[in-house]
Specification:
The chain is mainly alpha-helical. The protein contains 10 helices and 4 strands. A hairpin with a 5-residue loop joins strand 3 and strand 4. The N and C termini lie far apart (about 70 Å).
Amino acid sequence: MSRVTKLLQFLPLLAIAVPAFAAGDGAGVSPRAEAVFFEGLITNSIFTGWVFGAIVLVLLIKMVGKPSIRPTKGQALIEALLTALRELFEPIVGKKAFPAAFPLLATLFIFILLNNWMGLIPGVGTIGWHGADGHFTPLIRPFTSDFNGTIALALISFGAWLIIVFKFAGPKILFLDLFGNKAEKSETPGWLYPILTLVFLVVGCIEVFSIIIRPFTLSVRLFGNVFGGENLLHGTYFVFVFYFMEMLVGLIQATVFTLLSAVYIGLICNHGDDHDHEEGAAEAH
């Protein structure tokens, strides 16, 4: 069978699939999650996040099963993914904090990536019901397309940052990193050193402000890209060019979120790894 014939056979399926994807009017989606259970306590994004998280957890357990030296295909796939993530995050976070930070970073990456891609599944955003006033309430909505969901993820990342930094670096190193004079006193003129101390103090205050707003910047970046992509797809009736572009955007945004979380930890906790390595090399000689 020629490729042209296969394409012609595929076109009727495409004609059926595209309307099923779209909301029907091309007007996009609401930025607010819809209340679906318990008089508004549970929204469709929360419901979807819980259900999808449980499904992903069960699938991961089923794929890995009982770990063995000779891995199954599922175990080999998960191990390859975790190995790639380890090679990406370990140099950033540092060896000291990596064992504590890696479970968080790997979980965030997998959860965010799959939820970003979940908006591309047929029926997401279109399965639901019409109320008495004709308003349509979708049952399924990607967790990361709701700002409440992304701010929750950002707050978890920020809370973990506080715990890891205070455990593996301590308040003294954190204070010196923020407000300490980074100039070498022996190499700096005596009249300039106090001025630099004042400059670094001001810079530290600015850095504290940037740390405080990290949950907001992390959440807005993720929400804006996922929600914007969701509207783009609904507004263009899931044109396949934009469909595959959104797959790439979902991967990039999951990577950016987790990379920034790793960088924030590494900025404080990754001090001294190179120094310890040099000391170990010197002792070996």
